[in-house]
Amino acid sequence: MIRPEPSGRPVEPQCPVAPAIRVQQLAVDIPHPRSRYRAPTPALHDISFTAPRGQVTALVGTNGAGKTTVLRALTGALRPAAGSIEVLGRTVGPADRACPEGVGVVPDAPVLPEEWTAQDVIALRRCLGDPFDTSLFPRMLQASGIRPRAMIGSLSAGQTTAFAVAAALATDPQLLVLDEPLTRLDPLARSTLVDLLRDRLTDDDSRSVLLSTHDLEGMDCFVDHLVVLHEGRTVLEGDVDELLEAHVVATYPAGAPQIPLGARPLGRSGAAEALIATDDSVGLAPGTALREPDLPDLVGLTLAARAGRAIGEDRR
Ligand SMILES: Nc1ncnc2c1ncn2[C@@H]1O[C@H](COP(=O)(O)OP(=O)(O)OP(=O)(O)O)[C@@H](O)[C@H]1O
User: Fold this and answer.
1) Predicted confidence (pLDDT) at residue 11 exceeds the cutoff of 60
2) Rounded CA gap, 210 and 171, in Å?
3) Are 262 and 214 part of one and the same domain?
4) CA of 30 to the centre of ligand 1 (A)
5) Which of 10, 81, 109, 225 has its CA at 20 to 30 Å from residue 213's CA atom?
6) pLDDT by residue (tens digit) across 26-58?
7) Any idea where the ABC transporter domain is (predicted)?
8) Mean pLDDT of the region 106-121
C-alpha cells in the first residue's frame, strides 16, 4: 500500500537494490572428468555469503578451500547440487549455464591463444556482437605498459593478468569476477592492478568486484568485504571494518599456558599471536580465538595491519 506523506503526496515504495551476489547453502559436486557413471567429487558443502553491490568482496581461503569452485558455480560453469545462487538479482540455476549478463570474468589461467594480440580480442568481440569498448581497451593496455601489437605469449605474468583484466573491463561489467588475480604478480604489479581496478570502479557506485585469493597482501585497503572459506564451507563473513571492530590481536609470550591452538607463532621467540572475537556480531562467541583452520593467518595479519596494530604487542 502506498501511504501519503504528511504533505499529502503519495510516497513511492523504496525498491531495495539486490546485492551483487547472494549465495545460500550452496553445495557443488564436481563431475568426473572422463565418465558420467563415476562418482562426482563433493567440493562445496555449505557456502553462504552476500557480496554487497558497489563493493569489493574477497573470497579468502587456503589451497583447496573451494574458491575457484564457488566462482565457477557463480558464472554458471558448474551446477549446484543444493542451495541457491543469485547474481545481479538473477537466479543462476540448473537451467542457466551461461555466464550471467553484466558479469566480466578473469580466470586464474590465461585462456587466449599465445599468438593473439589486442586486435584479435577486439575482432572476436565484434564477431560475438558483445558490447566492447574498443577505445578503452587499448588505453588500459597502454596504462599497464602493454604495446597494442604485443602477442599475449610475449607478456610477463603481471602483464598477462593486466591484459585479461583490461579485456574484461572493456565489456563494462556490473560485476567483475577475478580468480586469484594476484598469484603471479610482484608487489609493484599488484599495486598497478589495484590502481587499474580502483580507477574503473570508483566512478560508479553500482559496480562490484568479487576476487578470490589466498593472500591479501597489497589488497587490504581495496577490499571492503571478506568471505573466508575452509574445506568447502564458509567459516566467516563480514565487512572488513566490522571484523576489525569485533576482534583484537592478542600476543602470547613464550610458554604462556593459554595460547590458543593454531595461534600464529612469532619468529623464534616462542611468542604467538591470535585474533580474538570481542563481540558475537560475526557469529563467534566473545573471547573466542579465531584459530586455523577457522581463519587463515593471512586474514588475521591483514586485519591487524589495517588496524595499524603492531604485531608482537600485547593488545589484551
Ligand atoms: N576437476 C576437479 N576434479 C576433482 N576435484 C576437484 C576438481 N577441481 C577441484 N576439486 C576439488 O574441489 C575442492 C575445491 O577446489 P578449488 O579448486 O575450488 O579450491 P581453491 O580454493 O580454488 O584452491 P586453490 O587456491 O588451490 O586454487 C578441492 O578439494 C579440490 O580437490
Assistant:
1) no
2) 16
3) no
4) 9
5) 81
6) 999 988 777 777 778 889 999 999 999 989 999
7) 21-256
8) 88
Cα(145) to centroid(ligand 1), Å: 33
Q: Which atom of ligand 1 is least distant from the CA of 231?
A: 29
Q: How far apart are CA 224 and CA 203, in angstroms?
A: 16
Q: Which domain holds residue 151?
A: 21-238
- Judge whether 189 and 144 are in contact, CB under 8 Å: no
Which residue from 67, 216, 233 has its CB within 8 A of the most atoms of ligand 1, so it is best to mutate? 67
Ligand 1 atom index nearest CA of 212: 22
The amino acid occupying position 141 is: L
For residues 160-182, give the mean pLDDT: 90
Q: What is the pLDDT of residues 182-221, one digit of tens each?
A: 877 777 778 878 887 877 776 667 889 999 987 776 676 7
Element (H, E) at 1: none
Any domain includes 299? yes
Residue from 26, 28, 29, 30 to probe ligand 1 pocket by mutation (most atoms less than 8 Å from CB): 30
Do 218 and 69 share a structural domain? yes
**Residue 205 shares a structural domain with residue 291:** no
Cis peptide bond prior to 42, omega within 30° of 0: no
Output the domain CATH number for residue 165.
Answer: 3.40.50.300
DSSP state of 241: H
Q: Report residues whose beta carbon is within 6 angstroms of any ligand 1 atom.
A: 30, 41, 43, 61, 63-69, 214
- CA angle 185–188–190, rounded 5-degree value: 45
For the entire predicted model, the pTM comes to 0.81
Hey, what's the cell of 104? 566480466
Find the 303 Cα to ligand 1 centroid distance in Å.
26
Phi/psi at 287 (5° precision): 85, -5
Tell me the CA–centroid distance for residue 43 and ligand 1, in Å. Answer: 7
Q: Which amino acid is at 248?
A: V
